[in-house]
Design goal:
The protein has two domains: about 90 residues, no CATH class; about 170 residues, Reverse transcriptase/Diguanylate cyclase domain (Alpha-Beta Plaits, 2-Layer Sandwich), CATH 3.30.70. It contains ten helices and nine strands. The strands form three sheets. Strands 2-3-1-6-7 form a five-stranded mixed sheet, with helices on both faces. β4 and β5 form a beta hairpin. The radius of gyration is 54 Å and the shape is rod-shaped. The N and C termini lie far apart (about 150 Å).
Length: about 350
């Protein structure tokens, strides 16, 4: 039979196992060494288990025995599990848990799924990257083709509208632009002038120095004339050694002044050939398009050119290297006839 003291000792152990608070060891029970040892061990075990229950795996388990040994093993497993989770977090999906039964199976399955998902995502990323690169290459190629086509289109437009030798407007483009300019200028009651020029004795120049030198002379002539024109003036090659100039917003007096400036610039600017510098001159015919004239006639510009050409012919007859206006040629403001073409006076 267990005496009263033994029963009280058992009751104390029961409280150590079940009560929330650690029971106090009475003075009489404290005299029992074995009970004191049990009390101390259970109190330490309770403290460690409470720490585990709150997620604290740091307590140092110093109690010995099967229960503390199991607690130490559990503590080591949980610490290792935390480390494995950290490795998975860093992308190491090779981690496997082997010591926690169903939890191990669930954990290992989760890691495998995460590994497979990540590999699939990486594969899709690689596929998308390759597709993006291919699309970008295709876009770049198409942009290059479009740019090349635009450059070709611009070049073809330029070649279609400009003289290939001198780079100025060809006859058709000059007539189109001059026609548009005249419509605008005369609608604002402003005058403008048109001039024809012909390089003097150009056939003799070609016969003497050769056609390549003649080409250089034409390019040189365009360069000198362009530098002498005003900002809004422009020129075109009419054919051979003939050029046509448009003086925007100029009355006849101004047109003659501009033409004279161009003539002088050309006369003092020899073309440099392999054999040395050679002087070239040009004859000019100037005509006026005044607000009183109706530019709606589709042949208006051509008639102005014909007028300028008449004046140019007079400049050649008078000895070349000079400027003659159509009014000077006619000495009146009347319509005259020349080889069946109607001519507009200034």
């Amino acid at each position: 039979m267990i005496n009263d003291e033994g029963l009280r000792a058992l009751e104390h152990v029961k409280k150590l196992l079940k009560d929330n608070a650690v029971p106090e060891l009475s003075d009489d029970l404290a005299k029992i060494p074995l009970l004191v040892e049990i009390h101390t061990d259970f109190k330490a075990i309770r403290d460690v288990l409470y720490s585990f229950s709150t997620g604290d795996l740091s307590p140092d388990i110093r109690v010995r025995g099967i229960i503390p040994g199991c607690m130490k093993a559990l503590q080591a497993h949980l610490r290792h599990l935390i480390w494995q989770v950290q490795m998975v977090e860093q992308g190491d999906f090779s981690q496997q848990v082997q010591f926690m039964g169903e939890f191990s199976q669930a954990f290992n399955s989760m890691v495998r799924q995460m590994d497979a998902t990540l590999k699939e995502l990486k594969q899709k990323e690689a596929t998308l990257t390759a597709l993006t690169n291919n699309l970008q290459n295709e876009v770049d190629l198409r942009n290059s083709v479009v740019e090349a086509l635009q450059e070709s289109e611009s070049r073809f437009k330029y070649l279609a509208s400009h003289d290939p030798l001198t780079g100025v407007l060809n006859r058709r483009s000059f007539l189109e632009r001059a026609g548009a300019e005249v419509q605008i200028i005369l609608a604002r009651s402003i005058s403008c002038c048109l001039a024809m020029l012909d390089i003097d004795h150009f056939k003799r120049f070609n016969d003497t120095y050769g056609h390549l030198a003649g080409d250089e002379a034409l390019r040189h002539t365009v360069k000198v004339i362009s530098s002498a024109l005003r900002k809004n003036d422009f020129m075109g090659r009419y054919g051979g050694e003939e050029f046509v100039l448009f003086f925007s917003g100029a009355d006849l007096e101004t047109g003659i002044v501009i033409a004279e400036r161009v003539r002088k610039s050309l006369a003092v600017s020899p073309v440099n050939l392999e054999t040395g510098p050679v002087n070239i001159t040009a004859s000019f015919g100037v005509t006026l398009a005044s607000p009183e004239k109706d530019p709606s006639d589709p042949k208006f510009i051509q008639k102005l050119i014909n007028n300028a050409d008449v004046a140019l012919y007079e400049a050649k007859k008078a000895g070349r290297n000079r400027v003659v206006s159509f009014i000077d040629r006619q000495n009146s403001d009347v319509v005259v006839k020349n080889e069946g073409n109607e001519l507009l006076s200034g």
